[in-house]
Every structure is written in C-alpha cells, then in structure tokens.
C-alpha cells in the first residue's frame, strides 16, 4: 500500500487560504458570528509568533510508518483542535457522539452548499457540499470498482479521533480529525473553519462555552509513504480496542468467544479494500490475495481474550431522537503466523474498523514483539 499524505501547519490568510508555516494558537473565539468572521479573515501576518516549545505527545495514534497491501493507495490528511471550557465541564463516558455532533453542526454552517439556509438534518444536496462529502457521502456513479456492487452506502471518510472511554474533566478538550481520500483545498478550508466555529457553539446539555487553544493541520512526511506486504513470520500479537469496536456477525455484536483471528482479519480486510476502492486505488492483486490470507488467518490461535461489551445511547440533536450504540472494549492475544498480518492491522489502526467509525468507534492499536522466521 502506498499512502500519499499531504500536510502542513496552516492559518487563515487574506482570502481564507492557508499559507504554510503558521497556525492558530491561544485564540479565543467569542460566541458572536461577526467576531468569528473577523477572526476567520485576519491576515497571518497579524497573528502572534509560533510557540516553538516542545509539545506533549499527541493523545491519538498517528500515521504508521509502515502498513501493507501494495499496490493499494489511500491519501490521508490529519487535523487537531483543542478547546478550553470556560466553566466546569466533564466529557461523557463515550464522547464520540458529542464531539462528532458539534463538529457536524459547525460543518453545516461552514460547509453547506446553501449557507444562508443550511439543512437542519439530512443533507438535501448530497455530494454537493463539504458536510455531505465528509459525513454523508453518496456512492459514486458509476461505481469505481466491482467490489462495491451491492453496497447501499459509502463509509464516511471523516474519522473523529476521540479520547478513550471514561468520564473525565478534560482541559483542554482535544479533538483529532482524520480524512481518508483526496481532500480539496476548498474542503480543507471549510473543515478548518468548522473546527474554529465549534467555539461559537455550546457543548453538551449544560451548554458549556469553549475557547480555542489551537487549530492546526498536522505535519506528516511530505512524500508518499510506501507500504510493503508483511514478511512471513511466527510470533505473538497483542491487539487493544481503544474505543468500542462495533463488529457484528449475523446481526449481533461479536463476543470474545467468536471473534477469532480469522473473523477479525475479515473485518479488517473488508474495511481496507472498501476504503481503497472508494477513496484511493485498489489493484486486482489485493482481491486475488484474499483466499490465501484467509486460509492462513485460520491458523492463527487466540491465546487470550479480555473483552467486554459497551452499550449506550446517543442523542441526535437534529432529529431529536436517541439511537443505540455498542462495541467491544479490551484486548486480544494471538499466536502463530502473524507476520503477514501485522501491517494489515497497523493499517486498520489508521482507518478504524467496524460500524460508526464517523463517531470515533473502532480505534485500535497493535503491539507485537520481534517475529521468528516461519517454520
């Protein structure tokens, strides 16, 4: 897999363009649209100098340096925003829907194709505005790949990177955003504007106000990252779900008893090939490789499982309705010929897996010691 990644630090210039080398920092945004508009169009030259002090390690896993599946290609762009609550505020146990909700409301205001009368709920002009393209994209016509035949909807390319579950007093509140696939300059501009517009909205049922600590596009290597297939090798692998993974089989949530390595591999492979077919490039080699990999996955043994099911509800402000949410938290340990699969799982850490990834579900990380040559 070759992942083309383009990123830089940005801030708004005279025409809303984002010149390289600057960022918005420690900028309070009041709750008045006019003040926000003035902030949005300030020239970069008027902004304070960049803070060159060392930054703390990011709270979310960043782009891996190696994954797999050449010749698949999947462009990726990442952003980060931090907000300081002006009063007492506690993130809920599962904060993905809250953070996704405020970002969605902000993007309706900055990215709607009819900004004077934005859609209150379902997008009426799907595919024609930034909100729709990032949160509710239509399937392209004609379908770009035969793998997509029978699909009824496209997975959203925008992934909010949220804190791990747990009610907490977060100050600042840090929201990461990862976009899979090409991202136009216009949509980049609107997304950054939406991350700022969040400061003009209220958080949670308490209506907490926030101020912007920073909004930036994250730096990554300015050259395509080349991902090569994993080398065969035996060993152990430890996988942890950082946010609930909504993985189902025959309509029900997986359990520790039936989520073996082969089932996990199938979820991962389906996710990677679907995303590459929609938002990147998928070669025939990747399809042809599946049967062989599937047989090999069946020989990987589960040596430990510590999983629990999380169930909760989210409230849709636009529709004033409650929706059930669920997913698996915890870890799995595997042993066997995992060398080929390790890069696949590292790629899945980038794309998230399962349902409701647009709410931050399905984030994972992989730990694996050195592998021994295959027997």
From TrEMBL:
A Pfam entry, by short name: CRISPR_Cas6
Upper classification of the organism: Bacteria, Pseudomonadati, Myxococcota, Polyangia, Polyangiales
UniProt name for this protein: CRISPR-associated protein Cas6 C-terminal domain-containing protein
Superkingdom of the organism of origin: Bacteria
Annotated ranges, domain CRISPR-associated protein Cas6 C-terminal: 239-363
Organism of this sequence: Sorangium cellulosum (strain So ce56) (Polyangium cellulosum (strain So ce56))
